[in-house]
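Section 5: illustrative case.
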């Protein structure tokens, strides 16, 4: 592969595999509110958070990190206002204090924050509007979780840029194909990407271990270990689920995300690390497999977009299953068949927001990927014409993206209606 093309892959990994504290949707809300408070220069009398349906869906029920166990859009915004640091981006809430939490709680009791749905919005849009006396500030985010496209003070724009199309459709993703991803993974000087992959392995392992040992969510990870025995398959599922248990349960440890999602970052990482240890592969091979997993996860989002009704754990599990195939066989055809078999099984699992059950969905997707791998190793793959399966793995990935992005639009709307129906 030409060095210029290698740099595209290297830069993509460095751009997407970044640390984030907590579920990225409430953190994005906190970030927007913190930035607006910074511009306003005071604690507001009143705050309005206007959000797209997908943001509301993913921020409604999940626990806000460093919040004392609280959850919800209003508290995420208010904690961003009282103690958030916008310059920390997706770690905005990493240094909040008890005083900040108490102040946010008082504001919440006084009804200082309201939430509004932005009708006919793109999947990822947030507007934080803060009022203090005669002053007001608006901060708007679109397309990715920290992508500020507009800041207004007292109705006058102080910052503005074009939002553009869904960021997953731009040049950062347009060059991706499975064969080129594989070629990159085989040829890259691993020192070029080791730091970002090491950070992902280190941080995501820490939160997964915390999820196993602590009491978070429904304890999906620890339940799998208790009842499924000490097998590599069980551990791969359990460690992935446990990371989500902790993250959805408000654990204050950061994770390294994939395409804006911590759950996807965990799912793309932990099964690969478990199998790398089980197979006793070299460090070099482990990091190449991690790169493969992350890039395949990102590749699927090229057609799907960052947020939709299609559960992103499917994409990440496809990536980790393919990477395990790479570790076990080093055979491109086995890698391809693993992806096909996984997408032929669990495509269409719905995303009904970020909450405790995400851990169970992750475990199901990883289980499907491992089964898909075992089928692939027996030279078995679902055939073209079997549902959404096409004649090549790239076309199958496109089909799954079309299913989630176009076919599940109405599903997304109905999920939100169900979630908001009290």
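Designed sequence:
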């Amino acid at each position: 592969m030409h060095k210029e093309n290698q740099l595209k892959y290297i830069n993509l990994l460095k751009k997407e595999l970044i640390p984030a504290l907590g579920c990225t949707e409430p953190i994005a809300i906190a970030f927007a509110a913190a930035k607006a408070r910074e511009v306003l220069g005071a604690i507001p009398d009143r705050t309005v958070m206007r959000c797209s349906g997908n943001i509301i869906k993913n921020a409604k029920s999940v626990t806000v990190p460093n919040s004392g166990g609280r959850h919800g859009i209003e508290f995420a915004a208010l904690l961003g206002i009282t103690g958030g640091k916008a310059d920390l981006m997706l770690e905005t809430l990493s240094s909040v204090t008890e005083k900040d939490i108490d102040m946010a709680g008082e504001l919440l009791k006084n009804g200082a924050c309201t939430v509004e749905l932005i009708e006919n919005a793109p999947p990822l849009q947030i507007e934080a509007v803060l009022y203090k006396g005669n002053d007001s500030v608006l901060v708007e985010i679109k397309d990715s979780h920290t992508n500020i496209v507009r800041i207004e003070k007292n109705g006058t724009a102080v910052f503005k840029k074009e939002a553009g199309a869904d960021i997953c459709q731009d040049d950062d993703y347009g060059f991706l194909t499975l064969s080129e991803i594989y070629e990159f993974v085989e040829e890259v000087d691993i020192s070029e990407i080791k730091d970002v992959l090491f950070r992902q392995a280190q941080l995501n392992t820490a939160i997964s271990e915390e999820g196993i040992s602590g009491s978070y969510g429904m304890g999906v990870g620890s339940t799998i270990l208790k009842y499924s025995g000490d097998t590599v398959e069980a551990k791969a599922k359990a460690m992935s689920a446990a990371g989500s248990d902790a993250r959805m349960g408000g654990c204050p440890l950061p994770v390294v995300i994939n395409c804006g999602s911590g759950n996807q970052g965990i799912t793309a990482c932990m099964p690969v690390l478990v199998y790398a240890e089980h197979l006793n592969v070299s460090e070099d091979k482990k990091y190449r497999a991690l790169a493969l997993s992350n890039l395949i996860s990102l590749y699927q989002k090229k057609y799907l977009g960052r947020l939709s009704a299609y559960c992103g754990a499917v994409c990440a599990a496809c990536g980790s299953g393919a990477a395990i195939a790479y570790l076990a066989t080093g055979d491109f055809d086995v890698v391809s068949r693993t992806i096909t078999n996984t997408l032929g099984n669990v495509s269409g699992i719905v995303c009904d927001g970020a909450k405790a059950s995400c851990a169970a969905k992750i475990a199901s997707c990883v289980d499907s990927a491992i089964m898909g791998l075992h089928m692939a190793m027996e030279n078995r793959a679902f055939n073209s014409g079997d549902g959404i399966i096409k004649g090549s793995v790239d076309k199958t990935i496109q089909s799954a993206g079309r299913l989630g992005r176009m076919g599940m639009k109405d599903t997304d709307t109905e999920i939100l209606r169900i979630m908001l129906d009290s």
